[in-house]
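Why do we bother with holo predictions? Because pocket geometry can differ from the apo form. Keep that in mind while you read this record for phosphoric acid mono(formamide)ester.
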Amino acid sequence: MNAENPADEASLQLNADGSLRHLLTLNGLDRQLLVDLLDRAEAFLAPEGDLPVRSNALAGRTVGNLFFEPSTRTRASFDLAGKRLGADVLNLDVNTSSRKKGESILDTIYTLEAMHVDVMVVRDASAGVPAFIARNVKDFVSILNAGESDVSHPTQGLLDLLTIRQHKPDFGNLAVAIVGDIRHSRVARSAAHGLHTLGVGELRLVSPPAMAPEDGDLAFARIVDNLEDGIRDADVVMALRIQRERIGNLDGIPGIDEYFANFGVSEARLKTARPDAIVMHPGPMNRGIEIEGSVADGPQSVITQQVTNGVAVRMAVLERVAGSQELT
Ligand code: CP
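The structure, written out:
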């Protein structure tokens, strides 16, 4: 299964009236829709110390989590987001699902559709799976991409944008450095497209040459092959995990010690970024490889805030695709 043409995928996710039906990619998503989702996510964030915000916007709806790849943050936050909106939430255990007996992905989807699962949250290692499913479901079903191969992770992109906006709202004056395994990272792609849509001043993709992007759709970013230049005077430094599960050819891929020495975001290296720079990481984090532990836990880190924002962003997306429909 191949990744869809980005323009086809962008139009597939909209209803005829331009409203959001599926969330497959941030590439090509309208700026106003992006801003509306971020604003709505802000409204779902409780003041520190308060209980989480709840609503009944999805009462009577069912959200199914179908994670065919491991996940902690995305799966848990979709689960909580659905419950906080009053939905029934089904977490399919893929290890005991009938896909293990050879059932096709579409037969699994049709089975859940027959049980009236309204929103299917899908993570899969193969490119093109979320759009393929979206093309084959009934009108009442929405598909949310929860991580698609190295292609796209749109709700991660939204939570990254929200976190940046909370600290640095003037996107046009920002220098953002995404550091690490860009080539194999769906997180980097979704963040890059979202930042581009919001008019980021400068986007730098910083990596060893063997981890630099190969696709032309990130041509708006500056490719940098050393960390010192890459994070100099940056306002935002986002470290990425090395996506070992997706690296087929190890030629040119540095070993762990070499990688940390040259591309690890360490306290010493971070001094070249702006003094008020924020440090991000999508998780799961490998301390001592892509980021020094003291940086991950340090005063510039917003990593736990990213996680908190993940629930609010997923509430905003769920409400947008399923909350406003007539109950059946
Ligand atoms: N950032 C992210 O997608 O984390 P999980 O793999 O834990 O969901």
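The chain has a mean pLDDT of 93.
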